[in-house]
Each structure stands twice: as C-alpha cells, then as structure tokens.
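User: Good morning. I'm curious how zinc ion would be positioned relative to this chain. Could you predict the structure with it bound?
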Amino acid sequence: MNSRLAMHLSPRCTAISKRTKKSCQAPAVTGWSVCRFHGARGGGPKGTRNGNYKHGEATREAVEDRRALNELLRASRAILSDLSRDES
Ligand SMILES: [Zn+2]
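Assistant: Good morning! Here's the predicted structure, ligand included:
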C-alpha cells in the first residue's frame, strides 16, 4: 500500500487467517494487537456480573488463591520432611 494517510499507517491486526493462512492486516483496535473481528474487546462480564456465576469458587482470583496456597503447603511439607530426615 503506497498511501501515506494516517488511517493506513495505523497498527495492523496480527491475526493469521485460518482460511488463507495470511495475516489479517485490518486496522487493530486501539490498545490491542488484533482487529475487532479477531477478538479485541468483547468477552463476557467478569465475576458476579457474568450470567454463569454460581458461587465464586471458579473465578480467576479464587483459582489463583488456591494455587498459591497449595504451592505454599507443598513447599512447607518438603521443608518439614527434609528437617525430619536430617534429625534421624
Ligand atoms: Zn484481524
């Protein structure tokens, strides 16, 4: 493209077409690397505003908290078993 218009110089979508295997090249949505067809913005509301929200145990935050706690428990169990092995 030889145009020097600002709209043609804007960042382009980085998505690759499944059909043609070529990059999309449509203008990317501001703050995103992809265009509006390729997943910029959109998605359902988070947390209690989502229609599928039940109890909050599966929210990203809750899962992350559980993972962190389990990691801490695993590490402390490993340290404790190391200590008890050293004593005997
Ligand atoms: Zn695109």
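Residues 13, 15, 24, 26, 34-35, 37-38 surround zinc ion (CB under 6 Å). The chain has a mean pLDDT of 91.
Let me know if you'd like a different ligand tried.
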